[in-house]
Amino acid sequence: MLEAEAENSIAASDDADSLEKLRIGFLGKKGRLSSVLGGMGKLPPNERPLVGQRANILKSQLQKLLAERLAAIKSQALDELLQRETIDVTAPPSGILLGHRHPLITTTEQIVDLFCGLGYGVVEGPEVETDFYNFEALNIPEDHPARDMQDTFYLGANRLLRTHTSPVQIRCLEQVPPPVRIIAPGRVYRRDAVDATHSPVFHQVEVLAIDEGLDFSHLRGTVMAFLKSFFGDLPVRFRASYFPFTEPSAEVDVQWRGRWLEVMGCGMVDPAVLEGLGIDPDRWSGFAAGLGVERFCMVRHGIDDIRRLYSSDLRFLEQF
Protein backbone atom coordinates (compact mmCIF):
# COMPACT_ATOMS: atom_id res chain seq x y z
CA MET A 1 0.00 0.00 0.00
CA LEU A 2 2.84 2.42 0.86
CA GLU A 3 4.62 1.46 -2.37
CA ALA A 4 1.57 2.16 -4.56
CA GLU A 5 0.91 5.49 -2.82
CA ALA A 6 4.52 6.62 -3.24
CA GLU A 7 4.63 5.64 -6.93
CA ASN A 8 1.37 7.48 -7.68
CA SER A 9 2.48 10.60 -5.78
CA ILE A 10 5.86 10.70 -7.55
CA ALA A 11 4.27 10.22 -10.98
CA ALA A 12 1.80 13.05 -10.30
CA SER A 13 4.49 15.52 -9.16
CA ASP A 14 5.24 18.26 -11.71
CA ASP A 15 8.07 20.30 -10.15
CA ALA A 16 11.30 19.81 -8.22
CA ASP A 17 9.94 21.31 -4.99
CA SER A 18 7.06 18.86 -4.70
CA LEU A 19 9.44 15.97 -5.42
CA GLU A 20 11.68 17.09 -2.59
CA LYS A 21 8.71 17.17 -0.20
CA LEU A 22 7.80 13.62 -1.25
CA ARG A 23 11.37 12.45 -0.70
CA ILE A 24 11.36 13.87 2.80
CA GLY A 25 7.87 12.49 3.50
CA PHE A 26 8.76 8.94 2.46
CA LEU A 27 12.54 8.61 2.96
CA GLY A 28 13.45 11.32 5.50
CA LYS A 29 14.50 10.59 9.08
CA LYS A 30 10.93 11.10 10.18
CA GLY A 31 9.44 9.76 6.97
CA ARG A 32 6.94 6.97 6.65
CA LEU A 33 9.47 4.35 5.55
CA SER A 34 11.72 5.27 8.47
CA SER A 35 8.74 4.79 10.80
CA VAL A 36 8.27 1.27 9.43
CA LEU A 37 11.92 0.46 10.01
CA GLY A 38 11.74 1.98 13.48
CA GLY A 39 8.85 -0.28 14.44
CA MET A 40 10.59 -3.50 13.49
CA GLY A 41 11.52 -4.12 17.15
CA LYS A 42 7.90 -4.90 17.91
CA LEU A 43 7.73 -7.58 15.25
CA PRO A 44 8.32 -11.26 15.88
CA PRO A 45 11.97 -12.22 15.34
CA ASN A 46 11.19 -14.40 12.33
CA GLU A 47 9.44 -11.49 10.46
CA ARG A 48 12.11 -8.83 11.00
CA PRO A 49 14.47 -9.98 8.18
CA LEU A 50 11.64 -10.10 5.65
CA VAL A 51 10.33 -6.66 6.60
CA GLY A 52 13.83 -5.18 6.61
CA GLN A 53 14.65 -6.63 3.21
CA ARG A 54 11.40 -5.38 1.73
CA ALA A 55 11.91 -1.91 3.21
CA ASN A 56 15.40 -1.63 1.69
CA ILE A 57 14.11 -2.73 -1.71
CA LEU A 58 11.31 -0.16 -1.50
CA LYS A 59 13.79 2.55 -0.51
CA SER A 60 15.92 1.80 -3.58
CA GLN A 61 12.86 1.80 -5.83
CA LEU A 62 11.64 5.13 -4.49
CA GLN A 63 15.08 6.75 -4.88
CA LYS A 64 15.19 5.58 -8.49
CA LEU A 65 11.66 6.84 -9.18
CA LEU A 66 12.45 10.22 -7.62
CA ALA A 67 15.65 10.59 -9.70
CA GLU A 68 13.91 9.60 -12.94
CA ARG A 69 10.99 11.95 -12.32
CA LEU A 70 13.32 14.84 -11.46
CA ALA A 71 15.29 14.25 -14.66
CA ALA A 72 12.04 14.20 -16.65
CA ILE A 73 10.87 17.46 -15.07
CA LYS A 74 14.21 19.19 -15.84
CA SER A 75 14.16 17.90 -19.42
CA GLN A 76 10.63 19.17 -19.93
CA ALA A 77 11.55 22.57 -18.47
CA LEU A 78 14.57 22.81 -20.81
CA ASP A 79 12.45 21.92 -23.84
CA GLU A 80 9.92 24.59 -22.93
CA LEU A 81 12.69 27.16 -22.45
CA LEU A 82 14.25 26.33 -25.81
CA GLN A 83 10.86 26.54 -27.44
CA ARG A 84 10.26 30.01 -25.98
CA GLU A 85 13.73 31.29 -26.88
CA THR A 86 14.08 29.73 -30.33
CA ILE A 87 15.25 32.26 -32.95
CA ASP A 88 13.97 31.90 -36.47
CA VAL A 89 17.10 32.65 -38.48
CA THR A 90 15.03 32.79 -41.67
CA ALA A 91 12.84 35.64 -40.38
CA PRO A 92 13.57 39.12 -41.78
CA PRO A 93 15.52 41.38 -39.35
CA SER A 94 13.55 43.89 -37.37
CA GLY A 95 16.39 46.41 -37.62
CA ILE A 96 20.20 46.39 -37.65
CA LEU A 97 22.27 49.32 -36.41
CA LEU A 98 25.08 49.83 -38.90
CA GLY A 99 28.42 51.32 -37.95
CA HIS A 100 29.63 54.59 -39.48
CA ARG A 101 33.07 55.27 -40.88
CA HIS A 102 34.64 58.31 -39.27
CA PRO A 103 34.67 61.35 -41.58
CA LEU A 104 38.43 61.77 -41.09
CA ILE A 105 38.97 58.22 -42.35
CA THR A 106 36.77 58.64 -45.40
CA THR A 107 38.37 62.01 -46.21
CA THR A 108 41.88 60.53 -45.97
CA GLU A 109 40.88 57.58 -48.14
CA GLN A 110 39.44 59.85 -50.81
CA ILE A 111 42.59 62.01 -50.87
CA VAL A 112 44.75 58.90 -51.12
CA ASP A 113 42.58 57.44 -53.89
CA LEU A 114 42.81 60.64 -55.95
CA PHE A 115 46.61 60.76 -55.78
CA CYS A 116 46.91 57.04 -56.42
CA GLY A 117 44.88 57.68 -59.57
CA LEU A 118 47.58 60.18 -60.57
CA GLY A 119 50.27 57.52 -60.21
CA TYR A 120 51.45 58.12 -56.65
CA GLY A 121 52.32 55.40 -54.15
CA VAL A 122 51.57 55.45 -50.43
CA VAL A 123 54.38 55.36 -47.85
CA GLU A 124 54.34 55.74 -44.07
CA GLY A 125 56.85 56.60 -41.37
CA PRO A 126 57.20 56.67 -37.57
CA GLU A 127 55.32 59.20 -35.48
CA VAL A 128 58.24 59.40 -33.02
CA GLU A 129 61.03 61.03 -35.02
CA THR A 130 64.55 62.33 -34.56
CA ASP A 131 65.53 65.97 -34.84
CA PHE A 132 67.48 65.10 -37.98
CA TYR A 133 64.53 63.78 -39.99
CA ASN A 134 61.99 66.27 -38.67
CA PHE A 135 64.16 69.37 -39.08
CA GLU A 136 67.79 69.16 -40.21
CA ALA A 137 67.33 67.01 -43.31
CA LEU A 138 64.54 69.38 -44.37
CA ASN A 139 66.89 72.36 -44.40
CA ILE A 140 65.86 73.55 -40.90
CA PRO A 141 69.04 73.75 -38.77
CA GLU A 142 68.92 74.14 -35.00
CA ASP A 143 69.05 77.94 -35.00
CA HIS A 144 66.65 78.37 -37.92
CA PRO A 145 63.68 80.67 -37.14
CA ALA A 146 61.35 78.27 -38.98
CA ARG A 147 61.45 76.03 -35.90
CA ASP A 148 59.36 78.65 -34.13
CA MET A 149 56.63 77.99 -36.71
CA GLN A 150 56.13 74.50 -35.31
CA ASP A 151 55.90 74.27 -31.52
CA THR A 152 57.21 70.77 -30.91
CA PHE A 153 56.65 68.01 -28.34
CA TYR A 154 60.17 66.91 -27.35
CA LEU A 155 60.59 63.49 -25.72
CA GLY A 156 64.27 63.60 -24.79
CA ALA A 157 67.20 61.55 -26.14
CA ASN A 158 66.93 63.48 -29.43
CA ARG A 159 63.38 62.19 -29.94
CA LEU A 160 60.23 64.18 -30.67
CA LEU A 161 56.70 63.74 -31.95
CA ARG A 162 56.80 64.63 -35.63
CA THR A 163 55.32 68.02 -36.47
CA HIS A 164 54.59 67.12 -40.10
CA THR A 165 54.75 64.09 -42.38
CA SER A 166 57.61 65.61 -44.40
CA PRO A 167 60.19 63.35 -42.66
CA VAL A 168 58.67 60.46 -44.61
CA GLN A 169 60.05 62.13 -47.78
CA ILE A 170 63.58 61.95 -46.42
CA ARG A 171 63.27 58.34 -45.27
CA CYS A 172 61.87 57.34 -48.66
CA LEU A 173 64.56 59.15 -50.69
CA GLU A 174 67.25 57.48 -48.55
CA GLN A 175 65.99 54.09 -49.72
CA VAL A 176 64.52 54.70 -53.18
CA PRO A 177 66.43 56.54 -55.93
CA PRO A 178 64.55 58.97 -58.23
CA PRO A 179 62.18 59.07 -59.99
CA VAL A 180 59.80 59.06 -57.03
CA ARG A 181 56.10 59.88 -56.69
CA ILE A 182 54.70 59.30 -53.19
CA ILE A 183 52.13 60.50 -50.72
CA ALA A 184 52.54 60.16 -46.96
CA PRO A 185 49.34 60.30 -44.88
CA GLY A 186 49.63 60.24 -41.10
CA ARG A 187 49.09 61.75 -37.67
CA VAL A 188 51.20 64.73 -36.54
CA TYR A 189 51.59 66.68 -33.29
CA ARG A 190 52.10 70.31 -32.33
CA ARG A 191 51.75 72.21 -29.07
CA ASP A 192 48.65 74.10 -30.20
CA ALA A 193 45.95 75.26 -27.81
CA VAL A 194 42.66 73.51 -28.48
CA ASP A 195 40.01 75.70 -30.10
CA ALA A 196 37.55 75.56 -33.00
CA THR A 197 40.32 75.38 -35.63
CA HIS A 198 43.34 73.93 -33.77
CA SER A 199 44.21 70.64 -32.11
CA PRO A 200 47.52 69.31 -30.74
CA VAL A 201 46.91 66.13 -32.76
CA PHE A 202 45.83 66.28 -36.38
CA HIS A 203 46.39 64.57 -39.74
CA GLN A 204 48.39 65.52 -42.81
CA VAL A 205 49.00 64.15 -46.27
CA GLU A 206 52.40 64.94 -47.77
CA VAL A 207 52.94 64.82 -51.54
CA LEU A 208 56.34 64.43 -53.19
CA ALA A 209 57.44 64.05 -56.81
CA ILE A 210 61.09 63.85 -57.91
CA ASP A 211 61.95 63.41 -61.60
CA GLU A 212 63.91 64.93 -64.45
CA GLY A 213 62.57 68.20 -65.77
CA LEU A 214 59.85 68.89 -63.20
CA ASP A 215 59.02 72.56 -62.72
CA PHE A 216 56.37 74.72 -61.07
CA SER A 217 53.91 74.15 -63.91
CA HIS A 218 53.85 70.43 -63.07
CA LEU A 219 53.23 71.29 -59.42
CA ARG A 220 50.41 73.66 -60.32
CA GLY A 221 48.82 71.20 -62.71
CA THR A 222 48.90 68.41 -60.13
CA VAL A 223 47.41 70.60 -57.40
CA MET A 224 44.69 71.95 -59.70
CA ALA A 225 43.71 68.47 -60.88
CA PHE A 226 43.51 67.21 -57.30
CA LEU A 227 41.51 70.16 -55.96
CA LYS A 228 39.06 70.02 -58.86
CA SER A 229 38.48 66.31 -58.24
CA PHE A 230 37.97 66.84 -54.51
CA PHE A 231 36.06 70.15 -54.34
CA GLY A 232 34.62 70.50 -57.83
CA ASP A 233 34.79 73.69 -59.88
CA LEU A 234 35.87 76.15 -57.20
CA PRO A 235 38.11 79.15 -57.87
CA VAL A 236 41.73 78.44 -56.83
CA ARG A 237 44.60 80.84 -56.24
CA PHE A 238 48.31 80.46 -55.44
CA ARG A 239 49.99 82.94 -53.07
CA ALA A 240 53.72 83.32 -52.61
CA SER A 241 54.84 81.97 -49.25
CA TYR A 242 57.86 80.58 -47.44
CA PHE A 243 58.82 77.05 -46.37
CA PRO A 244 62.44 76.20 -45.53
CA PHE A 245 62.48 73.01 -47.61
CA THR A 246 60.89 74.40 -50.81
CA GLU A 247 61.87 77.29 -53.07
CA PRO A 248 59.82 78.87 -54.54
CA SER A 249 56.93 78.18 -52.17
CA ALA A 250 53.23 78.92 -52.30
CA GLU A 251 50.05 78.58 -50.30
CA VAL A 252 46.90 77.47 -52.09
CA ASP A 253 43.43 78.87 -51.40
CA VAL A 254 40.00 77.89 -52.63
CA GLN A 255 37.00 80.21 -52.68
CA TRP A 256 34.49 78.75 -50.23
CA ARG A 257 31.22 80.38 -49.18
CA GLY A 258 32.28 83.78 -50.44
CA ARG A 259 35.78 83.88 -48.92
CA TRP A 260 39.26 82.57 -49.67
CA LEU A 261 40.27 79.60 -47.55
CA GLU A 262 43.81 78.23 -47.34
CA VAL A 263 43.86 74.47 -47.95
CA MET A 264 47.50 73.50 -48.60
CA GLY A 265 51.10 74.61 -48.88
CA CYS A 266 53.46 73.60 -51.68
CA GLY A 267 56.66 74.43 -53.54
CA MET A 268 59.63 73.16 -55.50
CA VAL A 269 61.99 71.02 -53.41
CA ASP A 270 64.98 73.11 -52.32
CA PRO A 271 68.19 71.89 -54.06
CA ALA A 272 69.90 71.87 -50.65
CA VAL A 273 67.53 69.10 -49.51
CA LEU A 274 68.39 67.00 -52.56
CA GLU A 275 72.11 67.57 -52.11
CA GLY A 276 71.89 66.47 -48.50
CA LEU A 277 70.51 63.14 -49.71
CA GLY A 278 73.18 62.69 -52.38
CA ILE A 279 70.79 63.49 -55.23
CA ASP A 280 72.16 65.67 -58.06
CA PRO A 281 69.93 68.80 -58.21
CA ASP A 282 71.27 69.60 -61.70
CA ARG A 283 69.66 66.42 -63.01
CA TRP A 284 66.70 65.92 -60.68
CA SER A 285 64.06 68.37 -59.54
CA GLY A 286 60.82 67.94 -57.69
CA PHE A 287 57.90 69.45 -55.89
CA ALA A 288 56.23 68.85 -52.54
CA ALA A 289 52.85 69.74 -51.08
CA GLY A 290 51.18 69.27 -47.73
CA LEU A 291 47.56 69.45 -46.71
CA GLY A 292 45.59 69.06 -43.48
CA VAL A 293 42.97 66.34 -43.56
CA GLU A 294 40.86 68.05 -40.89
CA ARG A 295 40.61 71.22 -42.98
CA PHE A 296 39.52 69.27 -46.06
CA CYS A 297 37.02 67.29 -44.00
CA MET A 298 35.54 70.40 -42.38
CA VAL A 299 35.15 72.16 -45.72
CA ARG A 300 33.66 69.09 -47.42
CA HIS A 301 31.04 68.47 -44.71
CA GLY A 302 30.46 72.02 -43.47
CA ILE A 303 31.82 71.30 -39.97
CA ASP A 304 32.40 74.48 -37.97
CA ASP A 305 34.50 73.14 -35.07
CA ILE A 306 37.46 70.73 -35.29
CA ARG A 307 36.66 69.43 -31.80
CA ARG A 308 33.56 67.72 -33.17
CA LEU A 309 35.83 65.34 -35.07
CA TYR A 310 37.28 64.04 -31.79
CA SER A 311 34.17 64.06 -29.59
CA SER A 312 32.96 60.48 -30.36
CA ASP A 313 29.42 61.89 -30.27
CA LEU A 314 27.28 59.30 -32.08
CA ARG A 315 24.68 61.95 -32.94
CA PHE A 316 27.38 63.72 -34.92
CA LEU A 317 29.06 60.66 -36.42
CA GLU A 318 25.79 59.08 -37.59
CA GLN A 319 25.44 61.91 -40.11
CA PHE A 320 28.25 60.56 -42.26
Describe the protein in words.
The chain is of the alpha+beta class and 320 residues long. The protein folds into 2 domains: 2-85; 103-317, Bira Bifunctional Protein, Domain 2 (BirA Bifunctional Protein, domain 2). 41% of the residues lie in helices and 22% in strands. The strands form 2 sheets. The protein has a 7-stranded mixed sheet, with helices on both faces. A 3-stranded antiparallel sheet has the order 2-4-3. It is rod-shaped and about 130 Å long.
Helix content: 40-55%
When the domains are counted, the total is 2
Strand content bin: 15-25%
**What's the average pLDDT?**
84
CATH superfamily of the largest domain: Bira Bifunctional Protein, Domain 2
General form: rod-shaped
Compute the number of helices.
11
Element pattern in H and E: HHHHHEEHEEHEEHEEEHEHH
The largest sheet is:
7 strands, mixed
Task: Give the number of DSSP strands.
Answer: 10
Class inferred from helices and paired strands: alpha+beta
CATH class descriptor name of the largest domain: Alpha Beta
Distance between the termini: 79 Å
Strand order of the largest sheet: 1-5-6-10-9-8-7
Give the name of the CATH architecture of the largest domain: 2-Layer Sandwich
